[in-house]
Write a structure and sequence with these properties.
By secondary structure, this protein is an alpha+beta fold. It is built from 4 helices and 4 strands.
Length: about 200
C-alpha cells in the first residue's frame, strides 16, 4: 500500500509539476507577447513622434525660408526706393531751387501767367509771393505786367518758401508755382522713370 501511495503521490506530484510547467510556459508566453506588444507600441509611438518632429522641422524650415525671402524682397525694394529718392533729390532739388532763385525767371513766369489769365478773363488777379521776396519783386512785377494786364493785380506776401501763387482775386483757388511743387512733381517723375536692371 505504501507503494501505491507513493506511486499516487508521485503521479500527483508529476501532474502538478507538469501543470505548473504548462502554467509557467503560458504565463511566460503571455508575458513575452505583452512585452512584444509594449515594445511594438513604444516603437510605433517613437516613430510617430519622430515623423511629427520631421514634419514640424520641414514646415519651420519652409516658413523660415518664405519669411527670409519676403524680408529680403522688402529690404531690396526699400533700398531701391531709397536710391531712387536720393537720385531724384540730387537730380531735381538743386536745379529747381537754383532756377527759382533767379528772380528774372520768376518775373517772366508771372508775366506769362498774368497774360494767360488776362486773355481768358477780366477778373482781378492776386499774386502771392514769399515774404522774403516781396519787397524785391513787387514793383518789378507791377512794371512787367502793366502792358499785358487788363484788370487789377494785387500782390501780397504769404507763407511760401519760393516761387509764387496766382489766381482770380475774388475766387477761392490759386495755381501754385512754388519750388516745392516743382520739386515734388519732378521727383515723382524721376523716381518713376528710374529702373534697376537685374
Amino acid at each position: 500500500m505504501d507503494n501505491k501511495l507513493q506511486e499516487l503521490t508521485q503521479r500527483v506530484y508529476a501532474e502538478g509539476v507538469e501543470r505548473a510547467n504548462l502554467e509557467a510556459e503560458k504565463i511566460k508566453s503571455e508575458a513575452e507577447n505583452e512585452a512584444k506588444r509594449i515594445i511594438a507600441e513604444a516603437e510605433n509611438k517613437a516613430q510617430s513622434i519622430e515623423n511629427e518632429a520631421r514634419r514640424n522641422a520641414a514646415e519651420l524650415e519652409r516658413n523660415t525660408r518664405n519669411d527670409l525671402q519676403m524680408a529680403s524682397s522688402q529690404i531690396i525694394q526699400s533700398l531701391k526706393n531709397d536710391i531712387k529718392s536720393l537720385i531724384a533729390t540730387k537730380v531735381v532739388d538743386a536745379p529747381i531751387k537754383e532756377t527759382f532763385a533767379d528772380k528774372d525767371f520768376i518775373i517772366s513766369i508771372i508775366t506769362k501767367a498774368v497774360e494767360g489769365f488776362s486773355q481768358k478773363s477780366s477778373s482781378d488777379l492776386a499774386v502771392i509771393l514769399p515774404e522774403n521776396d516781396f519787397s524785391n519783386l513787387n514793383q518789378r512785377i507791377q512794371n512787367s505786367v502793366s502792358s499785358v494786364l487788363k484788370s487789377e493785380l494785387t500782390i501780397t506776401s504769404g507763407n511760401i518758401k519760393g516761387g509764387f501763387k496766382i489766381g482770380p482775386k475774388e475766387e477761392n483757388y490759386y495755381i501754385t508755382f512754388t519750388d516745392e511743387d516743382f520739386i515734388s512733381l519732378f521727383r515723382n517723375f524721376v523716381k518713376g522713370n528710374i529702373e534697376f536692371s537685374k
